[in-house]
Structure formats: C-alpha cells, structure tokens
Amino acid sequence: MKQSLLITLFFLLLTINNKSIAQEYNYSIACLTGKELSKFQNPTNRLHKEAYRSFLAMQKEAAKDNIQIQIVSGYRSFNRQLQIFNRKYTRYQKQGLSKIQILNKITEYSTIPGTSRHHWGTDIDIIQKISNPPKNLLVAKNYEEAGVFCNMKEWMDKNAHKYGFDLVYTNDTNRTGFKYEPWHYSYAPIAKKLLTQFIQYETHNAIYKDLKKSKIKMDSLFFKKYLKTHIYNTDNEYINN
Ligand SMILES: [Zn+2]
Q: Using CA of residue 152, residue 157, residue 158, residue 161, what is the dihedral sign?
C-alpha cells in the first residue's frame, strides 16, 4: 500500500516536472509570429531571458580576449518586419521588378513578416565593437579573412556553441533559403523547440491571414514554397530535435 502510494507520488511529480519543462518553451501563435511578447522574454530588450543570460556570459568571456561583442538587432516584432518588407518592396518596385522578382529579391536576406526567427527573442545579429566601423555593418566580407569583424567571427567559431549559439544561415552550399549571414546567431536550446512548435501549430495559416490584413503584396504559391525553402529547413538538424 505504502509502496504504491510512493510510486503514484513519484509519477505525479514526474508529470508536474515534465509539464513545467514543456511550458518553459511554450509560445502561442501570436508570440511565435511577433504579435505578442511571451512571458519568457525580457520586457526591456524583449530577448528570451535564458538566451540573453547566455549571451551576457558569452559577451563577458569574449571581452577577456579583447573581443567586444555587440548586438545590433535582437527582437523584432511583426510590425517592424512589415515595415522592413514594405520599404524593400517599394524600392524594388521602383526599379521595375515584377512581383515575383521582388519577393525573390527581398527573401535573399529578409523574412516575410510573421516568419522571422527574430520574433522569438532567441536570435541576434552581432558585430564587433571597433573604433572605425564601416558604413555597412552586416556584410559577409566584414566577417571573413581580413574583414573588420574577423577576430570576433574566429572567436565565435570556437566558442559560441559552448553558450548554445549557432549560425543558422551558414555558407553550406547544400542549404536553401536565405543567403549566408555570418552575423546571425540563434540560441539553439530554445530556438529548436520554437521552430518545431512553429511547424506543428501550422502557424503559416495564421500568418497568411495576417499578411492579407496588412495588405502586403504576397503570392500564396510563393509563400508556400518560401516556407519550405527558407523556414522549415533552415537546418534539418533543427527539425529533428
Ligand atoms: Zn538576423
């Protein structure tokens, strides 16, 4: 009798514990798409609390090696991404490009609102703090070989994974989607879970409705293809975990 009570208690505790772990990563569709903040994000910089804690630890460690890491873009809301998208759309339209040409051009580097990993507070764009930074910061050549941020990139190649940060838009030629972004790091322990949720919740239906409401110029076939090439297979390893 006593033993069975103990066993029941054990499983009850296990369930409660599992539930709290699951909830730790649970974002609503509104949070996954940058429409609302989750309770896991800092109200000030809106980064995921765990991701930010880990970033600060990494930043401190890098500083010991004289590398000052600076975030230039962290959390981004749906509306902010919409502004970026619309600004680029108008620019390319003026250049005389067709709708599909424009959509292809925008999604070389920018996301369609609602699909950005920056909505989750787990992803950051970083630079190295230096005295004379170039005008265009987020350019691949700045991070490679003799580029101005190459010391930081080298340090990140060696150490970022220790703090849970990974490059997602790598220079792997087998990868489809966004171009190489050596500045974009993702806090993998949380972001992997959120991408799985993003796919499981069929978030794209909610996003497509929001895009229509925002009067954004979109094409449903393009959007479907984009999800496959740019979002779902950001990294196959992300989906399997
Ligand atoms: Zn980014």
A: positive
pLDDT 10s digits, 90-100: 999 999 999 99
pLDDT, position 4:
66
Angle between helices 188-200 and 203-213 (to 10 degrees): 80
Residue 99 neighbours by CB under 8 Å, 6+ apart: 217, 219
Ligand 1 centroid vs 74 CA: distance in angstroms? Answer: 8
pLDDT in tens, 161-219: 999 999 999 999 889 999 999 999 999 999 999 999 999 988 999 999 999 998 888 99
Burial of 157 (C-beta count, 10 Å sphere; 0-12/13-18/19+): exposed
Tell me the domains of the chain and their CATH numbers. Answer: 32-240 (3.30.1380.10)
Structure tokens at 94: 């003026």
Residue 135's Cα: distance from chain center in Å? 24
Which residues touch 226 (CB under 8 Å, ≥6 apart)? 103, 107, 112, 115
Q: How far is the CA of 23 from the centre of ligand 1 (A)?
A: 26
Nearest-angstrom CA–CA distance, 38 and 46: 9
Residue 130, exposed/middle/buried by CB under 10 A (0-12, 13-18, 19+)?
A: middle
Q: Which residues lie near ion ligand 1 (Cβ < 5 Å)?
A: 125, 184
Whether 74 and 172 have beta carbons less than 8 Å apart is answered as: no
